[in-house]
Amino acid sequence: MRDRPTVRVAWLATALLLALATVALSLAVGTRQVPLSAVLDALVHGGGSRDALVVRSLRLPRTEVGLAAGAALGLSGAALQAVTRNPLADPGILGLSQGAAAGVVFAIAGGLANGFGGYVWYAFTGAVVAAFLVYAVASRGRGGASPVKLALAGTALSAMVAGATTVVLTSSSATLDQFRFWQVGALSGRDAGTVGRMLPFLAAGTLLVLVCARGLDALALGDDTARALGHRVQLVRGGAALGATVLTAAAVAAAGPIAFIGLAVPHLARRLVGGGHRWALPLSALLGAALLLAADVAGRVVRAPAEVPAGVMTALVGVPVLVVLVRRKAVAV
Amino acid sequence: MTTAPRERPRDPDQARNPDHARYPDSAGLVAIRRGSLSLLLHRRSAAVVAVLVVLLAGVMLLAACVGQTYVPPGEVWRVLRGHPGPYDLVVGELRVPRIVLGALVGAALGMSGALVQTVTRNPLASPDVIGVGHGAAAATVLALATGTVASPGALPAVSVAGGLAAAALVYVLAWRHGMQPSRFVLTGVGIGVALSAVVQLYLTESELAAAEQVKLWLTGSLNGRGWDQAVPLTWVLLLTLPALVWASRALRPLGLDPDTAAALGVRVHRTQLALTVLGVILAATATGAAGPIGFIALTAPQLSRRLTRSPQLPLTTSALTGALILVTADLTARTLMPPLEIPVGALTALVGGPYLLWLLTAPKS
């Protein structure tokens, strides 16, 4: 049933429509409601009306960030779960989130950067460095970078980096004061160029992960079987992990460490179209984007005029859904 | 077609030892029997336990000597024997309670990690994964935010209740015609994320001073803690001791796949539930005593398994490893940047992490 091409195409199309619908909502909904016709008008013709300004200078960048970060997190989560063969794997597992956080703390404490726009490169660099360290550690010793070793090395390094940042945060209240707003993960306050700066990385990461899709299918059968099928296990694992690293680093740099999407979305995607990665990966990307944007829109509405950060909303909206799915055996675990 | 000759046990000892049938890979296991009682010893584990005990005693003694003022070991010994002396306050009232509490919290966390990881069959699982730490944190933050807790002394009780409630919620939500480890873990992570979102929200909405206070509690610390926290934890450990002795054997078959365990006559679901409850109680009490100190429950069992090379996660070694990591981390936290105290939760990973990484990368000896 799940493996029929028509069913898969139908789910992909549905997810695409869902993502487009959340984009429309994200442009139209907020403390200032803008009719969809006016949104379209503002995007196509520009213009100087207040509505047009709100849409183009505030909501468009925000929507771009949500779309890019959500898709990147969904995609990289699916890839990392396959690489580590662990249903608990999420973009935090290779030390990515903690590495990014360390980069941001370093930037704030050193007085090197201010505001979300300034953190981007520090977060990106921190995430990439952390992931490379984890991979280097895990590939030493017996058996190379086996799934369990990757997961444990990632967890250990994450915890160590988190410890170091906590030392700074508990001894410098000025740093904590700025950091807590980044740490929660949000789409607001990002400037227009954020996604543009990350675009090459997003493209490269997406390409890498998708190229490895068939190899990831084979990895699910175990390393020996994958080798017997003619796949180069370490190459597939390394390639997919690298792609996921770049994607996550870009997403975290743009939107902060938004939890949960990378963990839960792949489970949902596999449930809908089966475990084949050529289908599950694109679907994870679309669902991730839709979920993050929907959470962001909900966060604007729930306590208007105040906002609830998207990072909080993804959890509060997504968790009940996940629990229901898991209970209905609807999640492929 | 010849019928195979019935295999005769070559070793008379094997014939009498049913454990050989149950665990064919029982190299290095020694069974000690007295009538109907028996104890199974793993030779290498026994050696590791002995080494860890010596190390732990050494670090605890060192921690009693070192600090703002150096106290010679002889003076520490005098205080411990109860003879009055000049160092009664600094050693007897301040350092010893804190060191003992550190060892107890570390041991409780290490054991609870071993229990939960065995039940969930996942090396990344820890009591935090099934909601204990996040539940304790969310309950504490809510209590602080709403001002329902009049005195700070009531906070530990609140956090224990929060941890137990969260874990119970996860268990109920994940239970459906039995307990599937992966479903349990996924539900736990989900609930944990939701609870930590609540905490994050509080951190961004509160005044900076309040946020700092919460952040400090969330990191976990032994600073200014002592007998008041150590006594309840000791009671919990003593009361759970019979259960823990049972658990150290009940863990074994759960390391196999559930069907095999069931075929061996293990009541899998019941054992899983009992071990989970035990692990959650230990983790929740430890969190109540010192805040949600991370990393120990996660890694002590993995470290122990690699040290002892035993097929399952060893309970005693996990307890000792956990205690050793925490006491060492707290000693570092006190003495690294005096007079500034680093919260110990920030250092457990910095102390234990490199060791785990080294074990992961060590070539086969």
From TrEMBL, chain A:
Bilayer disposition of the protein: Multi-pass membrane protein
SUPFAM superfamilies: ABC transporter involved in vitamin B12 uptake, BtuC
GO molecular function: transmembrane transporter activity
Main localization of the protein described in the UniProt heading: membrane
A Pfam family recorded for this sequence: FecCD
Keyword line: Cell membrane, Membrane, Transmembrane, Transmembrane helix, Transport
GO biological process assignments: siderophore-iron import into cell
Transmembrane segments: 95-113, 119-138, 150-169, 240-268, 280-302, 308-326
Localization terms from the record: Cell membrane
Domain of life: Bacteria
Any Gene Ontology CC annotation: plasma membrane
Family of the protein in this entry: Belongs to the binding-protein-dependent transport system permease family. FecCD subfamily.
Protein name: Iron ABC transporter permease
TrEMBL record, chain B:
Pfam families: FecCD
Residue ranges of the region described as Disordered: 1-22
One biological process term in Gene Ontology: siderophore-iron import into cell
CDD domains on file: TM_ABC_iron-siderophores_like (cd06550)
Transmembrane segments: 46-71, 99-117, 129-147, 153-172, 184-203, 233-252, 273-300, 312-333, 340-360
Species for this entry: Streptomyces liliiviolaceus
UniProt membrane topology term: Multi-pass membrane protein
InterPro entries documented for this protein: ABC_BtuC-like, ABC_transptr_permease_BtuC
Protein name: Iron ABC transporter permease
Source organism, top-level taxon: Bacteria
Family affiliation: Belongs to the binding-protein-dependent transport system permease family. FecCD subfamily.
GO CC, alphabetical: plasma membrane
Localization annotation: Cell membrane
Annotated keywords: Cell membrane, Membrane, Transmembrane, Transmembrane helix, Transport
Any one Gene Ontology molecular-function term assigned to this protein's record: transmembrane transporter activity
